[in-house]
Amino acid sequence: MNTSQAAPAALKILVAGGFGVGKTTLVGAVSEVAPLHTEEYMTRASVGVDDLAGVGEKETTTVALDFGRITINSDLVVYLFGTPGQERFWFMWNDLVHGALGGVVIADTRRLDSSFASIDFFESRRIPFVVAINCFHGRNTRTADEIRTALDLDPYVPLLIGDVRERSYGKETLLALVDHLDRLNAPAA
């Protein structure tokens, strides 16, 4: 009697964004397992290297990746890979993106410029992505149209606004990516 089952299909999603925008938080909010974090305490060595403008209360930072998992059903598992945000770790993104179906760019309206590199990264590799605005403590200082213009987003790129600490917003963001991928892959009418 053969009791072995086929392994579930695995989908990979990359979560990117600037330093301190909430990548680790999003992965932790939606992962069904305790996420793997490579957080380290920031030390004096990061003074003058990491820009703490707008994130002055930040004490730790991702130095390699974050990893989480969501089981959709017995046939499908989604793996989330969160990138480190500091420029000195961007070289790792090329390895982390290998095999990714799509991406989530997390942005902070207080520092939208920190999202440009992530958007450029996905666009230059033709990897579909959505943009998730993280409203820290429920604050958002810009409209969706202002954000879209500031980030120079194509009109078809989904833009969501919410708080990445909330599991429901994380799920909504991931579902928006799946819908976006589905639309992009639908046959032309």
Automatic annotation (TrEMBL):
Gene3D superfamilies, alphabetized: P-loop containing nucleotide triphosphate hydrolases
Cross-referenced SUPFAM superfamilies: P-loop containing nucleoside triphosphate hydrolases
A GO molecular function held by the record: GTP binding
Keyword Nucleotide-binding part of the UniProt annotation: yes
Name of the featured protein: ATP-binding protein
InterPro entries documented for this protein: Gliding_Motility_GTPase (IPR052705), Gpn (IPR004130), P-loop_NTPase (IPR027417)
Protein source organism: Streptomyces calvus
Pfam families: ATP_bind_1
Domain of life according to the entry: Bacteria
Keyword entries, A-Z: ATP-binding, GTP-binding, Hydrolase, Nucleotide-binding
Keyword presence, Plastid: no
CDD domains according to UniProt: Ras_like_GTPase
Family statement: Belongs to the GPN-loop GTPase family.
